[in-house]
Design goal:
The protein has helices spanning about 10-20, 90-100, 110-115, 150-160, 185-200, and strands at about 1-5, 45-50, 65, 70-75, 80-85, 105-110, 120, 135-145, 170-175. The chain is built from five helices and nine strands, in the order βαββββαβαββαβα. It is of the alpha+beta class. The strands form two sheets. A seven-stranded mixed beta sheet has the order 6-5-4-8-9-2-7. The chain has a two-stranded antiparallel sheet with strand order 1-3. The longest helix is centred in the last third of the chain and has 20 residues, at about 185-200. It is about 30% helix and about 25% strand.
Length: about 200
Amino acid sequence: MLALATAGTLPAALAAQNAAAPAPASAPAVAPSGTTAEPAWPANAKVIQATVAKIAIPPGHADNDFPIPQIRVYDKDGRLVLERLGYYAPTFSSFLTRALSGGSPPDASKTLAGELDLVLTPDGKPIAITAVPEADYTLVDYWASWCAPCRAQDRDLIKVLSAKPNLRVNLVRVEADLSQKTPEEIARMIEAARASAAKKTQG
């Protein structure tokens, strides 16, 4: 879990957590720590690159607590069916497999359209829900290059998606390294997310 860091620094507790997340021995290889190379995603995953633009602090988390990794799975109707925040555990594969098999009830109050409002393309453009390819599921994955739990989660994600070659999946990869952001930039990103949420509530 990432406590929002000032520019260029990361909390010692985060470093300890990352170091304590070993990769499964049988998992496919992904990029080592500190690199930005993409894992070798299976052919049934349509990868959409993005960056975090607005910081939505999840309910129950402190104002300075933006958990990494984050992954949310939405069904073909854009409803949330799985949410995992701030940690990796070996049970991730089973939870993800169940969600991608229709075994998790959807939450229509949390939508893919709302999620996409928080991110931008790498060149700073919005990602319209109408621009997202038709798929059985869309996964929104927040990651950072220094995040060891993110890499462990990637390995399991590759394994699960590879075992379902006929499943059409969009994978929105949201680069969410906030360590180079100033406190003022982070505050503006949090406020932007709150303003968006308030507007939706009023509408």
